[in-house]
Specification:
Elements: E1 3-7, H1 8-15, H2 21-31, E2 34-38, H3 40-48, E3 57-61, H4 72-82, E4 92-93, E5 105-108, E6 118-124, H5 131-146, E7 155-161, E8 169-174, E9 180-181, E10 190-191, H6 192-198, H7 203-206, E11 218-222, E12 228-231, E13 235-236, E14 249-255, H8 258-272, E15 281-288, E16 294-297, E17 303-308, H9 309-316, H10 322-330, E18 335-338, E19 345-350, H11 360-371, H12 391-405, E20 409-410, E21 416-417, H13 419-422, E22 436-437, E23 448-449, H14 454-463, E24 471-482, E25 490-501, H15 507-520
Parallel strand pairs: 4-15, 5-8, 5-15, 20-24
Antiparallel strand pairs: 1-3, 2-3, 6-14, 6-15, 7-14, 8-11, 9-10, 11-12, 12-13, 15-16, 17-19, 18-19, 21-23, 22-23, 24-25
Helix pairs in contact: 9-11, 10-11, 12-15
């Protein structure tokens, strides 16, 4: 979960009162977030030593699906609504004085489909920045980039001082050598290729270069004076850099995912629209697409959903009316009211900054949070069940116990391994009919799901070469193979394997271990002359390789 550091005094000022660490920790728990750290004691200790100190901070862990809580503005607003200190704010789109015909227009070139095909934009007018909310504005973009934007791969955000630019704007894709501008915090102009080289040594930007570096065209924003706004998803232009004196902010986003594009734009706009001269107002932007189609962004309209009071009561164990549940949902920034035609139905309006509400169960969860998880009644389940081990697990316990009694050590290697470990290093060929391969492996070490326990056991021996001989290790666990008849087209099979490592081969040791477990399982050994006719039992045979 992402952690957000907020100024302690500023947050308490927004909440209208001070809290002890214990009180605020309890408030966070009730709301569904977690106080990770209060730096007050560290700040006070540093001050006593005469060291320079910053203001005390509260580090709060936020659920990964609550992107609206990644800044102090979102946290304070949600907690104030939760504490009934204010109602859910209504964010509105406000057209320019001349109406829709005077909307700022952005033209999208067809070449952008080759690199980052989706874009959106918005304007915040007459913003009043302080050092505190300016820092929060920058930090929110960074938090969004690292989380929902997946390190700028899915969405990238650019913010600009609108007063330094001349509309209309253009979003294009050009050859790297045809793009020239002075990037943010630089003194000279670079073209696209030079920029890639210049930022290789800057760690905070080098990790994003691969997103467009090998593309024949780079995405770029221009104004009508051919002034570059940004080279997404890498860097903005120095020319349109925002600062504390910026009053009108142009926000542009480019993306590979259209859904996340809308979510991120809405969150950036709504979180900071409170600083506009007319609070909670956003000016939309007209986008003209290559096919002539026009769209207006952002879309701040709420989504209509319905929930059943009976369903919510059955999940939480309470007995509340639709009106009482509606009041609980209002504390979670959801506009709700009972249906006039159905006493069990609740009409819910989900605001644009709550993309985490996808299903009726999400509404139920918010109602439970507002009611208080600690206040939910504790009841015994209506059905009785008796737990017991699966037969295969009971069998595995017998194997583990007997082999451990015999002086062998159980190991637990990872179920993922490299393709070579599973095949080439085991003198086996991959016929592509059994092994399950990962589509996007994190590294070459984890490419396939193992089809044998031996690679893991041999890796264990390799990593313990300094251990005194003999090394006697075993494992009882699953392998995975393809199975077209199964629902998920794969099947887990429980295997047991053992490896003996010593200066001598020790076949008789492994043979004895195997005979021991067969004896414990009452599986008879089959004599050579009865191999063909026996219906039950085991025998040993030599295999090639």
């Amino acid at each position: 979960m992402p952690t957000v550091a907020v100024d302690k005094l500023e947050l308490f000022e927004r909440l209208g009162r001070s809290y002890t660490t214990e009180e605020f920790d309890q408030l966070c728990f009730e709301f569904g977030i977690e106080l990770d750290e209060d730096t007050t004691e560290e700040v006070e200790a540093a001050a006593k030593r005469g060291e320079p100190v910053e203001r005390a901070q509260l580090k709060i862990e936020i659920p990964a699906n609550r992107s609206d809580l990644l800044c102090i503005e979102g946290i304070a607003r949600a907690l104030r609504v939760f504490l009934n200190l204010e109602t859910c704010p209504q964010v509105k789109l406000v057209l320019p004085a001349g109406g829709e015909k005077d909307l700022l227009t952005c033209h999208i070139a067809s070449e952008t489909a080759k690199i980052r095909p989706y874009t959106a934009a918005a304007i915040l007018r007459n913003v009043r920045f302080t050092q505190s909310n300016y820092d929060s504005f920058i930090e929110l973009q960074d938090k969004l980039h690292q989380n929902i934007c997946r390190k700028r791969q899915l969405v990238s955000i650019g913010t600009h001082d609108l007063d330094t630019l001349k509309p209309p704007f253009r979003y294009e894709a050009r050859s790297p050598t045809n793009i020239n501008f002075i990037p943010l915090n630089k003194q000279k102009s670079y073209n696209g290729q030079e920029l890639m080289t210049a930022y290789e040594s800057e760690k905070h930007l080098a990790r994003y270069l691969h997103l467009i570096r090998d593309s024949p065209v780079y995405p770029v924003w221009y104004d009508s004076n051919e002034q570059v706004l940004s080279l997404p998803p890498i860097i903005n232009s120095e020319h349109s850099k925002i600062n504390l004196n910026t009053r009108n902010i142009f926000i542009e986003l480019t993306a590979l995912d259209e859904t996340k594009l809308a979510i991120v734009l809405n969150i950036v706009c709504i979180m900071f629209a409170e600083y506009c001269e007319v609070p909670f107002t956003v000016e939309p932007v007209r986008l003209v697409w290559p096919d002539g189609k026009e769209t207006i962004t952002p879309d701040l309209s709420s989504r209509a959903m319905t929930a059943s009071a009976e369903y919510i009561n059955s999940c939480t164990g309470v007995s509340l009316s639709a009106l009482e549940i509606s009041d609980l949902l209002k504390r979670m920034t959801l506009e709700a009211q009972p249906s006039s035609s159905n006493p069990d139905e609740i009409l819910v309006q989900v605001p644009a900054w709550r993309p985490d509400i996808l299903h009726e169960c999400d509404i139920m969860e918010d109602a439970a949070i507002a009611y208080g998880f600690n206040n939910l009644p504790k009841t015994f389940p209506t059905t009785n069940t008796v737990a017991q081990q699966l037969p295969v697990s009971k069998l595995c316990d017998v194997v583990r116990r007997e082999w451990a009694y015999a002086g062998w050590v159980e190991v637990l290697p990872l179920i993922l391994c490299s393709h070579d470990e599973n095949f080439a290093w085991m003198n086996r060929k991959d016929d592509c009919t059994q092994v399950v391969k990962l589509a996007n492996p994190k590294s070459q070490e984890y490419q396939v799901v193992r089809t044998s326990l031996l690679p893991g056991l041999l890796k264990t021996v390799r990593e313990n070469k300094a251990h005194p001989l003999p090394i006697k290790v075993f494992e009882t666990s699953d392998i995975v193979i393809k199975d077209s008849t199964a629902e998920r087209e794969t099947r887990n099979i429980r295997h047991a394997a053992a490896v003996w490592c010593n200066k001598t081969a020790g076949f008789e040791v492994v043979h004895g271990l195997f005979d021991r477990i067969m004896a414990m399982l009452e599986v008879p050994r089959i004599a050579d002359e009865k191999k063909e006719s026996a219906k039950f039992g085991y025998y040993l045979r030599e295999i090639d390789g």
